[in-house]
Specification:
Blueprint: H1 3-7, H2 11-53, H3 66-69, E1 73-76, E2 79-80, E3 86-92, E4 95-106, E5 109-119, E6 135-141, H4 164-171, E7 176-183, H5 206-237
Helix pairs in contact: 2-5
Amino acid sequence: MSDRAAAGRPLWVTALLLALSVLMIVVFVLLGNWQVRRLAWKQELIAAVETRAFGPAVALPEHFDAGRHAYLRVAVDGRWLDREAVLVKAVTELGPGYWVMSPMQTGGGILWVNRGFVPADARDPANWSIAQSPVTGLLRPTAQGGTLLERNDPQSGRWVSRDTVALSDSLGLGATLPYFIDADHRGAPAAWPRGGLTILRFSNSHLSYALTWYAMAVLFALGLAYVLRSSRRKDEAD
């Protein structure tokens, strides 16, 4: 903007632009602080998950708390129900296919077990290994409703998330636990379903995000200081 344009600009416009610039600097700093807090939370989560997932298998918790028990390694014995497994759409490191979800009767209610992954060409149960008990694996909270892009459709038997209560309702089962187990792999290495595919790697880019927001705050502050200094020099020259 030329000096002539700046000179003809009303004072309230200049004050508004300065206020907005200061507000942007404050917002960038707050966003950086938020990312720092997210960084601390993510580091605590990673440490907690590693401790739970790779520790010795324990019994199912009496009162499930997702914050405390997600990815906890457990061992449970129960009775597999004589029901056809439900296939839930999945994309894994092995490619697209399905999770094989099977219900098990336990003392605490119906427990859904993710026996593992099968590709589309192996979705026939005749290609699967026999379900065994006890089951060892990682606790996962139920995933209600579906995903951001798709919804479960129990009427047509189309599932995109592992919603334990909805799965039980679709089969007319009783009281159901609010979690499922990602089972470890059983049987031959190449057998289906392929268990043990739980993703335990969490992206952690919060530090780079925080530095980006702080850098933007510094750049805005430097730009504002330059404009104020230039304006002051112009006033002194005039």
